[in-house]
Amino acid sequence: MVITDLLERNARLYGNDIALVEINPSEERDNAMNWREASLIETATPNAPYRREMSWRTFDRRANRFANLLLSRGIAKGTKVGMLMMNCLEFLPIYFGILKAGCVVVPMNYRYSSDEILYCADLADLEVLVFGPEFVGRMDAISDKLEKVKTLFFVGDGTPDYAEDCLSLMRFCSESLPPVELTEDDYAAIYFSSGTTGFPKAILHNHRALYCSCLTEQNHHSQTRNDVFLCIPPLYHTGAKMHWFGSLLSGSKAVLLRGVKPEWILRTVTEEKCTIVWLLVPWAQDILDAIDSGRIKLNDYLLDQWRLMHIGAQPVPPSMIKRWIEKFPHHQYDTNYGLSESIGPGCVHLGVENINKVGAIGKAGYLWETKVIDENGNEVPDGEVGELAVKGPGVMQCYYKNPEASAEILHDGWLYTGDMARIDEDGFIYLVDRKKDVIISGGENLYPVQIEDFLRKHDKIKDVAVIGLPDPRMGEIAAAIIEIKEGMECSEDEIDEFCKELPRYKRPRKIFFEKVPRNPTGKIEKPALRQKYCHGRLVEAQINS
After folding, report:
1. How much is the average pLDDT of 183-198?
2. Residue 389 within a domain
3. Fewest CB within 10 A of the end CB: N or C in the chain?
4. Cβ contacts of 404 within 8 Å, gap of 6 or more
């Protein structure tokens, strides 16, 4: 089955039921018209009003319209079509319209600069690019430099003169299913790596991989028609979209929340009766901090129906999950591990029944296999650290136009993740760190995630990142960039005293107090930190060597 079949099935079986809701907390609820009435108006813009909704039938018809728009332009099966859009009600119908036309959908990071948009458009061989109003400034600078892009579609009000009004054109296109035959082996999507270890690579997936993620997600979290999924992370990323695929498979409602403030999250859970919420670590921490400070009172919200909080996209501090369970003891908790190269979350999965194993990322997910290997590809004994490898129907086809990089991580169907891990006596996998982030100090391997987890136990620390700095004597030393909770003060001496519980060789030798930078999917931007802090140390190390 191809994933577009699920959308057509939902439109047929649940046509009048709500598929998607978009919430814009920054917009005033007191619009000139009733916000529920406004949600039914076809011409409503992506940024207003406060709330808009879409049925499964409308979702499918709009996808068909966009597919037929592409076909009317002579755009052939296999053409790469880029998407540069914020989360909005238009995103998923356009995404599925691209797939229904037999094209390859290429979502792009909304933080990309003009130069990065140019780079990724060229790398992916984009011929069509769909963009929203938030990107007009960046597109103004490069619209005449996108040499391979033949068509620019704009979604919103005030279409630039170098683009075409997508929504207006779609009104004249057929709502009927386009006559394009699709198979599971057809190429479906290109996603870009997060760039936390270098410049983004283009990750190519087929339709089988997308459908696999639907099955994996629904198996793990048991979505039914009665569930309501709150989606906050960006839809350009595999994580958010593939978790939503559980709603697609079950035919249940999802809510796209355009904002991450704790009050907005809890209000949306209350108003939309959300049952499943996927959070990134910073957002979960913000909710807990708001509760602890008294800014949020849980009695002000209706949360009884909220049954599952799951989290992922980065190592999850066990101390934070223990705090969460104290505040929300009735919640099921789960964590998922995945990569864009393995079609997002779920290749490793903790499971709600394994709350006693908080700190582990879990075992092989539904339809997946795992192993932990040494540098020669041999499995290591339980308890020893090695590289995590995964195998399943969601493994990427390749890095597009990069056979050398593909050959480095694809081996006989196995994907070598670059993440260092160990397996305990019960078969649960624990992440140790990124292979490229391991610090070698005086011949000892230091794993930053372990040090970060320890430091997060400090009552005053909100977030922390540990990186290696060049050192003329030790080769590298550990440095901690520490973000202190709002309204608190902390000294380097206080951190040093706290770290005396660590073995001496694991203690950070340098402490910096500042905000920890994270990308839109919650991962720490360690290359940016290395660039900021390592350059001077590297020069010093070279002079002294």
Report:
1. 82
2. no
3. C
4. none
Contact 25, 261 (CB under 8 A): yes
Q: Could you write out the three-class secondary structure of 225-294?
A: CCCEEEECCCCCCHHHHHHHHHHHHHCCEEEEECCCCHHHHHHHHHHHCCCEEEECHHHHHHHHHHHHHC
Helices marked H in 78-206 — which ranges? 91-100, 114-123, 136-142, 166-170
Stated as kind and residue range, the H or E segment containing 453 is helix 448-455
Are 400 and 123 a contacting pair, CB within 8 Å?
A: yes
Residue 500 tokens read as 């005396």
Sign (positive/negative) of CA torsion 30, 34, 36, 41? negative
Provide the H-helix boundaries in 24-113.
35-38, 56-72, 91-100
CATH code of the domain in which 534 resides: 3.30.300.30
In this predicted structure, the answer to whether residue 542 has a pLDDT above a threshold of 50 is no
| pLDDT value for 311 | 86
Q: Residue 451 sits in which domain range? A: 438-544
Q: How many residues does the chain have?
A: 545
Is residue 420 in a domain?
no
Mean pLDDT on 131-142: 96
For the stretch 91-126, pLDDT in tens is 999 999 999 999 999 999 888 889 889 999 999 999
- Across the range 148-163, mean pLDDT stands at 96
Is the Cβ–Cβ distance between 84 and 108 less than 8 Å? yes
Contacts of 377 (CB under 8 A, 6+ apart): 411
pLDDT, tens digit, 9 for 90 and up, residues 339-370: 899 997 789 999 999 988 888 999 999 999 99
At residue 520, the pLDDT reads 67
Q: What is the pLDDT of residue 442?
A: 64
* Closest-CA residue to 253 (of 273, 232, 233): 273
Residue 18 region by backbone torsions, left for phi larger than 0, else alpha for psi between -120 and 50, else beta: beta
Domain count for the chain, please give it.
1
Report the percent of the chain where pLDDT is more than 70. 90
Check: CB of residue 142 under 8 Å from CB of residue 114: yes
d(CA 457, CA 156): 45
**Residue 179, token pair as written in the block:** 């006559």
* Cα 495 to the center of its chain, rounded Å: 32
Q: Which residue has the higher pLDDT, 215 or 48?
A: 215
Residue 510: count of CB within 10 angstroms of its CB? 15
Mean pLDDT value of segment 21-47:
50
pLDDT confidence of residue 538 = 42
Angle at 9 between CA 4 and CA 14, to 5 degrees: 130
* Nearest-angstrom CA–CA distance, 416 and 392: 12
- Of 251-255, 395-399, 413-417, 502-506, the one with minimum mean pLDDT is 502-506
* Per-residue pLDDT at 33 exceeds 80: no
Using CA of residue 244, residue 219, residue 344, residue 395, what is the dihedral sign?
negative
Answer positive or negative: Cα dihedral of 403, 182, 241, 315. negative
Q: Is residue 492 part of a domain?
A: yes
The candidate with the shortest Cα–Cα distance to 303, out of 351, 268, 269, is 269
Per the domain annotation, does 471 fall within a domain?
yes
